[in-house]
């Protein structure tokens, strides 16, 4: 979700698949070696290039600009933009591809020399602050590692990260005193009043600890740190840049001096002096949401120096990326492995080593028997990111996600599952209760290790909490009325899908009454569908559709969420066949899909709306509502049309370059789409246990599943010319269906596509060969 | 410390002692019945009339005004002023007699009717808000209980308190809906930006919990609450009065409605609805510094309804006040018992029932084997309050104070003992390191139950922390130089005294090296004493005294702390004899004491200075530096002059009326002075184990000591006329000394004064009969 339309992006160069497998003269590089962390750090991706361990709590990455007053903050949501000429510092926390700004906690910057600026300075005026210019060619990054030569600071900076720690290494050019600036004001983004409170202290053993409580995207988010430099301090200064503080009480030992052992306030910056160093300075920093002792314990739990941590994290990445072995030309290899890399960052570890974490109620809880994860971008990730993680991460990790969601529901002041949570805090971003399909999909695909009955109860409770998002009206009327609640059309259809997943899980648990209730609710999408115009539309509480109606309009607080009727009318993933019948049948559905993809946008201007990027007509690949839509042709019996659209989308929306993502990566969803699509199938309706077959983009892929079995995809004859699926076999037998069952996938085996230059207009066209639809399945 | 000079107060009516014991026809009321909690709630006392248990964490008391923009906030430091015509609400936390404003947490006000105002309104405009008029005659208070009839609210309000809980009882006039307003904005005092963060939620079981983090006198103080009403809510509203919030993120279920289960922000107010009630509404509230679960556990730890809690706390007060049995006319009984009551509030319990508390580093700690107490107004209370508590409270309580101080030092980012701490937070108010004499005095008087070696180490560390209060200069030069550090003269002499107590404790522990170091430092008062003018003066770092010099000048940031040369020149309690020699001998010292008491202030104006109240010439009883000074005549061999001055002070500075304290009670110090003085002796130099004998103001007193023994004071023949001590016997034998030894006191026995109308000019005049002086004792 959330990415600005940039017209220039519609000119993205298409992938060239022409070189094919012939160029692979030597053994291809490993998955690890194929990742390019710079992909998505320009353009619309909002990725960061810094160091992170798989699902790590720390994302240690350069910030090129954190201030919102200089330029739009939206493009700097991850702190870094590839094209920026200066680096302001290195901070410990970043979202991978979010459309909203926050984090950027605990920015550190090396400064060399006798004068230590305490302000970042203006990027346009060299040496006006502690920020430094750098040469692009000096930058290098690989999973868990980032390095750059800072020209003004005359320092080589390297970053690596463990699970709860980040390690910085600075090689100062000899001959002048070395310092670090720790700017507790800096945030993504920085604005007056964001820091509610902060503190920093030097402990007798030299450990520097502190905290910051910020009001940003998340309210009153508290984060603590513990920092240990490899060299002793030769001096320090703690400064408070607050100008006017009413009745702040008396000052302590810091009165009139800046070398006190502790300082607290709302605009702190610290100078740490190291004198003349004869070896690189390493700075190890750990985080905790609990307290400073928690941060210290986390620091102690991951011993070793920079190189040791870097090697450990590299091994973790090699293992995590190693579950997928693909043969493909280098550009596609890079894109897919980087996509997999981007899929393995969130939800991220959030509890301390002792299990404690700060939850949605701002209280400290302890995760007993699991690791609490946070950063759930659920409106995005229920679609393909979580389904992908079920295939590439251990059951334990997936169960931990669900236990984290359930623990959050238990601690929620509202008694409901997370909506968009990070660092344990609810942000109420986007719509729906999409923790529900994440849990249902995992349960139906066999994930255990959590209390399924309690999970179902939490799901039902989340779907029944009246004050949330017009749910009381939805439960009364069968749809969300637009005169009572904004974005009502989008909410109605997303609730209906979520309800269907509750019903599916209830059936699996033998709870017939719950299942019946939610099977009925699953049909509520019909209440907002206008058969006359053929669009999903917002209804008023009196039952009429809201007028005037413009299916191309995109506005905040409108009938739709980050989109319009063109994109949202397709959101019936659980009952696409019924929706097509309402449209007038398969031919009409295909005509409408084509009308969307082929729409002439020349008279439209969406520059006012964020997150509208990656347009193909009225299809918007840069935002999630469109993500399943190219796969819908198959539901109308024309899978070759899906194959055409996927060719068009992959070729125009992904590139192995910094501006290579056409929309926000959204904590892995954009990337997970590519991983699935490259393999030739996609989870259109999580909860159905079906993957709709598209077309593969790699010559061969071997997926080592969490159960240890291997599932191989072969795309025989794949080339730019052979872009259509001619034949499909599963384990040597023809697969006449347009979908793969989850049970077939996890049993291991080989899915073989025979590619050809022309469409196969007979494969998987029969009604019985089409993917899941609730109505076809006998529900309603 | 800290109280404004009000000229009207110099007209305080003197005590009439004329009625004598003859009026006591029936058994006198108990100590409990003699307490008048309204004493000190007008005038300069800054006391509160509300409900508190001995040393309780909760002080549940009415606030008549909390806003600083309407009138000066200083007079409302305890929230309540006796003369105010309206009550704004009842809040859970108050200082008893502080000169600085903070607390006032979690204000609740009953509202009756269909319209519920959410603003307090203007006292001058009835019914302009939720505040209510009340009739003075409807008010009643006794230890642990307060009640008032609220006219506008048509509700009888009663308050009681346990250790960590407060209970409110509201009897709404029937016939209209009952509500409570919980105003999370209200504080002592309230100003924009004070609340850093706050939240409130209703839990599924009906418990209301929340928190507030404020930046007031203490920085970033966090306090949590749990509230249980006796009747179920029929509705509620949570509101946020913040006007402009940059980038606050999305809103949750509260969007567009006010009945969500939770709200967080910086300006919250809650409306709680109870409908038509047919019985009184009781509201039980517990506090915690740790988290909401801590508050809930504290709530559960003190079961029972309003009447049960009230009875339990009454019994606790009867026991605490019962250690002192006095015979005296009613006004003096009331004054002394109320003084004892005021002495038994702080330091107050701060850890939760499970031992956890938030310490000076803002981290959560656990008190193992003791109860953590906070609210240490040490600059005030080291003088007489802590010495009194050693005589009237169990050793365990006194040991807990010291363990709390030591735990605070351990958690201090600066590694030093508290200076002025409340709610676990350091405020850096006033000067000195007066935790040191508190610990030394307790140890030398036999209190055990803490690690004495660790305590001495903490004391030495506190006295050696260079960045604090010019200590690095003090250690280098032997005095604090005024060109480097403000209030240097006061600091020099207070450090010297504190140093002497370190030396005393080190000697007792056999640490000769530490003792020698600090015995030397104890003489540093000489370095700031100007023999030529006969005054303590501030020196520059070049050794010269600062000019110009005006011994009557009182200014902030001057050479002295809340005082001038007249008051501060007497602060050598540990070596008064040497100081008198510097002044030119006993006669010169007496002349100077008289010059101070008899000074003509008619040409001076101290209205700009707070805490300058209770003036007798240049003697200022309303502030602490003077408290020992009337006792100094005895050090010059003229104890009858002390007796005269005490008669003058007691008669002019204390009354059993709301305006009956001439200065801030300062967490019991003003009151403890009266308790000691009424008994006939005073701890001029805590650490000396001597009590200097003055003159008694009660006919008879029996003190039950912590060791179970009884010490009786008899003032034979006491009357307004018989104001001089004629004869003193201890256990029947003449006591020729002007002081009592602690060992003699705790052994139990009888101290009998025979009072007479004329001075006895021969008793206790010999040099050997005079109280402790370090130089006389052979030190230095």
From TrEMBL, chains A, B:
A Pfam family annotated for this UniProt entry: Glyco_hydro_92N
GO terms, molecular function: carbohydrate binding; peptide-N4-(N-acetyl-beta-glucosaminyl)asparagine amidase activity
PANTHER family: PEPTIDE N-GLYCANASE PNGASE -RELATED, SECRETED PROTEIN
UniProt keyword annotation of Hydrolase present: yes
Designated name of the protein: Sugar hydrolase
Domain of life: Bacteria
Cytoplasm listed as a keyword: no
């Amino acid at each position: 979700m959330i990415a600005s339309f940039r017209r220039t992006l519609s000119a993205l160069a298409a992938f060239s698949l022409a070189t094919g497998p012939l160029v692979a003269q030597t053994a291809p590089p490993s998955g690890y070696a194929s990742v390019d962390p710079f992909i998505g750090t320009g353009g619309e991706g909002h990725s960061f290039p810094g160091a992170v361990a798989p699902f790590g709590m720390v994302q240690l990455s350069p910030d090129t600009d954190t201030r919102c007053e200089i330029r739009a903050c939206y493009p700097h949501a991850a702190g870094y933009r590839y094209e920026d000429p200066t680096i302001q510092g290195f901070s410990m926390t970043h979202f991978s591809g979010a459309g909203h700004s926050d984090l950027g906690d605990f920015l550190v910057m090396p400064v060399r020399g006798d004068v230590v600026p305490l302000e970042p300075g203006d990027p346009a005026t060299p040496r006006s602050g502690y920020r430094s210019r750098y040469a692009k060619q000096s930058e290098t990054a690989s999973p868990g590692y980032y390095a750059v030569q800072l020209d003004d600071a005359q320092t080589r900076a390297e970053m690596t990260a463990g699970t709860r720690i980040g390690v910085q290494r600075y090689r100062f050019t000899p001959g002048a005193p070395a310092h670090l600036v720790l700017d507790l004001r800096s945030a993504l983004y920085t604005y007056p009043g964001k820091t509610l409170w902060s503190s920093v202290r030097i402990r007798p053993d030299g450990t520097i600890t502190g905290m910051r409580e910020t009001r940003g995207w998340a309210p009153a988010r508290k984060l603590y740190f513990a920092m240990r430099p490899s060299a002793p301090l030769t001096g320090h200064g703690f400064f408070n840049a607050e100008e006017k503080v009413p009745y702040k009480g008396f000052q302590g030992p810091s009165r009139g001096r800046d070398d006190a052992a502790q300082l607290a306030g709302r605009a702190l910056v610290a100078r740490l002096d190291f004198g003349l160093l004869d070896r690189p300075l390493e700075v190890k920093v750990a985080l905790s949401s609990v307290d400073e002792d928690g941060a210290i314990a986390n620091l102690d739990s991951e011993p070793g120096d920079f190189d040791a941590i870097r090697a450990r994290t590299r091994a973790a990445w090699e293992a995590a990326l190693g579950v997928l072995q693909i043969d493909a030309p280098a550009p596609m290899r890079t894109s897919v492995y980087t996509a997999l890399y981007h899929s393995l960052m969130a939800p991220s570890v959030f509890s301390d080593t002792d299990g404690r974490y700060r939850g949605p109620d701002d209280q400290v809880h302890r995760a007993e028997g699991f690791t609490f994860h946070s950063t759930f971008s659920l409106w995005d990730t229920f679609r393909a990111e979580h389904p992908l993680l079920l295939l590439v991460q251990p059951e334990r990790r997936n169960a931990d996600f669900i236990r984290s969601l359930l623990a959050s529901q238990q601690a929620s002041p509202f008694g409901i599952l997370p909506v968009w949570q990070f660092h344990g805090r609810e942000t109420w971003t986007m719509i729906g209760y999409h923790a529900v399909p994440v849990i249902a999909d995992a349960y139906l695909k066999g994930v255990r290790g959590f209390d399924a009955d309690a999970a179902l109860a939490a799901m039902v409770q989340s779907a029944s909490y009246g004050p949330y998002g017009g749910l009381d009206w939805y439960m009364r009327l069968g749809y969300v009325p637009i005169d009572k609640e904004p974005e009502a059309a989008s909410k109605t259809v997303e609730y209906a899908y979520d309800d269907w997943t509750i019903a599916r899980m209830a059936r699996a648990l033998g709870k017939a009454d719950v299942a019946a209730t939610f099977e009925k609710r699953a049909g509520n999408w019909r209440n907002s569908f206008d058969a006359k115009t053929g669009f999903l539309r917002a209804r008023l509480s009196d039952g009429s559709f809201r007028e005037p109606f413009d299916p191309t309009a995109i506005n905040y607080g409108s009938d739709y969420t980050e989109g319009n009727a063109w994109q949202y009318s397709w959101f019936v993933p659980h009952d696409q066949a019924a929706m097509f019948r309402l449209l007038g049948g398969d031919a009409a559905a295909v005509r409408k899909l084509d009308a969307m993809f082929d729409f002439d946008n020349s008279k439209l201007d969406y520059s006012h709306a964020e997150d509208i990027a990656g347009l193909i007509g009225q299809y918007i690949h840069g935002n999630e509502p469109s993500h399943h839509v190219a796969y819908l042709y198959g539901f109308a019996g024309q899978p070759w049309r899906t194959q055409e659209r996927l060719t068009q989308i992959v070729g125009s929306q992904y590139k192995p370059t910094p501006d290579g993502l056409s929309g926000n990566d959204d904590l892995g969803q954009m990337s997970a789409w590519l991983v699935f699509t490259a393999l030739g199938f996609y989870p259109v309706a999580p909860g159905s246990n079906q993957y709709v077959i598209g077309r593969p983009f790699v010559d061969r892929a071997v997926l080592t599943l969490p159960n240890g079995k291997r599932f191989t995809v072969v795309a025989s004859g794949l080339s730019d010319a052979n872009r259509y699926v001619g034949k499909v076999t599963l384990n040597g037998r023809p697969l006449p269906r347009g979908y793969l069952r989850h049970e077939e996938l996890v049993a291991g085996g080989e899915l073989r596509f025979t590619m050809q230059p022309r469409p196969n207009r007979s494969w998987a066209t029969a009604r019985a060969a089409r993917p899941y639809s609730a109505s076809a399945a006998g529900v309603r």
